Amino acid sequence: MVDISMIRAAATRLIGHARLTPMLQSPFLDRIAGRRVYVKAECLQHTGSFKYRGAWAAVSALDPAIRTRGVLAFSSGNHAQGIALAASQHQVPAVIVMPSDAPAVKIENTRALGAEVVLYDREREDRDAIAAPLAEARGLTLIKPYDDPEVIAGQGSTGLEIAFQARCERIRNADVAICSGGGGLATGVALALEADAPDLRVRTAEPAGFDDFARSLASGQRERNPRMGGSVCDAILTPAPGMLTLPVISRLGGPGLVVTDEEAMRAMAAAFSRLRLVLEPGGAVALAAALYHPDEFQGDAVICIATGGNVDSAVFAEAISRFGDGS
Amino acid sequence: MVDISMIRAAATRLIGHARLTPMLQSPFLDRIAGRRVYVKAECLQHTGSFKYRGAWAAVSALDPAIRTRGVLAFSSGNHAQGIALAASQHQVPAVIVMPSDAPAVKIENTRALGAEVVLYDREREDRDAIAAPLAEARGLTLIKPYDDPEVIAGQGSTGLEIAFQARCERIRNADVAICSGGGGLATGVALALEADAPDLRVRTAEPAGFDDFARSLASGQRERNPRMGGSVCDAILTPAPGMLTLPVISRLGGPGLVVTDEEAMRAMAAAFSRLRLVLEPGGAVALAAALYHPDEFQGDAVICIATGGNVDSAVFAEAISRFGDGS
Predict the structure, then answer these.
(1) Domain identity same for B56 and B86
(2) Are B183 and B241 in contact, with CB atoms under 8 Å apart?
(3) Domain boundary among A127, A142, A157
(4) How many Å lie between the alpha carbon of B40 and the closest alpha carbon of chain A?
(5) Which of A26, A313, A318 to mutate to test the interface with B (most CBs of B within 10 A)?
(6) With an 8 Å Cβ cutoff, are A313 and B273 in contact?
(7) Mind listing the pLDDT tens digit for each residue in A95-152?
(8) Contacts of B316 in chain A (CB under 8 A)
(9) In terms of domains, do A307 and A274 share one?
(10) A141-142, strands of its sheet edge to edge
(11) Does residue B267 belong to the interface with chain A, where contact is any CB pair within 8 Å?
């Protein structure tokens, strides 16, 4: 499993590669939420999402003799782009298995970053069953999007930054809301905060209908989602919490947060007008929880991780046209 | 006039107030431009533009006994918001004279930040003639948007950051393209770079039809714009270069850059899809020059200041709908 020393080692390897992303705020957002709202802008990370951190950490951790044969990933898009760029920076090939309904921009960008893309049907096919024989045939190393200790360690570097930035802002006893699919980021951040900022507590945030973490945290066992598609929050639709992630978040996190697709789109409009940030729907879920479900939080501040900003222009235009300034 | 010691003093006062904004890049933008492109994201500054720096610097430099009576500014919107927030943070009143055709979002935000807004007709009325009697009647101190030494000193703090960030990125002999209205930012940055990074050269960037700096730099005298409205780049439409700014930029800057409104909108789409940043048209002019006029530059890198991100949602939706990923 992952521990804080793995996270610190990954963060050290990431120096000079991952960006230290800013934590932004606006008096207008504070007014909506009724408390101070900080947005950790991982949409400004390389490839437009935090996934680059875990991807780079995992690729850099491979034995060079194994890495040189290449890596394989399955992803709805952000892990794909992270792996594609990290592989390219290590000068090794990357094959990415992506759902055919992933946003066009994510598929295009993954190819443009030099990866070979294999598409599959998210509703009918099992991505693991497609990925495994490919890995075997070419000697590729499979890098899972969240159930991989090195990936979780890389995502945890975000938590080390938050712990430092929260001290600079004199934030205490705040929740850290995190848009969650398989829970790799929430797990890495939870372990980082346990070590460096134990008064900050992780909260998973998910779209309604795909609230596997919220239900699993409530029931105490691993709950699955009934569907695998149908939400605009494509980046964070996973079948169930990860095997490595749920135990950590059960131990360290608070109750799961759930928002509607419409609230996610409204939060995109708020981030557009108040922070001048481009968020994708799945990357706006945590901010939506902070802005529109204030009763789910305690304390005078909340930190939201804006996990990604890779969004088709039509979806973004709809969000800002429908929801004004998001208030 | 302004010198480097004033800029360093302003930068010191701004610590803990202005954000140190990131300098972002993307391999996709590098491909369009044919060289490395760095975007200094002042759209992430408080109030969504670099103007907060100069506003806070000028308000903080006032004698407290004079400051307490309040400040007055005339502005198409970004200086207005900067002054409104800086005055509010100093707990003094602010009156802002704004053109009636300024984007609604800028007028609303200026009011929401606690300022009193007075509207005027940009084509028919002289904003100086409106502002002066107001200042006299209430004992307000007029803070001009660019022809004010303390404002220029505050904007210069951006240049100190760029000098440091360029060293971190090992950038040498690059141009620094700056969206320019009256030239306050370009002047402050030019003086900062002269001291801290003399191999970086300032280039003003303007929309076609409002290229007073480009023409003034070419002719050697102060040229005026024939019109005062009619470009989507509202933030940087000024009658002529400033009296304090043109001499500095003539001495330290390269030839002026000029782009079309359509190129500015295309650069907004590029920043949306490749950097996940929201730019306003006037804040995208420098990036547009770097991306679509590469022959105007030399060297293997260019730094563009993205000066602001306060844009009505309809204009932004049009930019990203029409221009895809801006390539």
Answers:
(1) yes
(2) yes
(3) A142
(4) 13
(5) A313
(6) yes
(7) 999 888 888 878 888 999 999 999 999 788 887 788 888 888 999 999 999 999 999 9
(8) 272, 317, 320
(9) yes
(10) A116-120, A94-99, A71-74, A141-142
(11) no
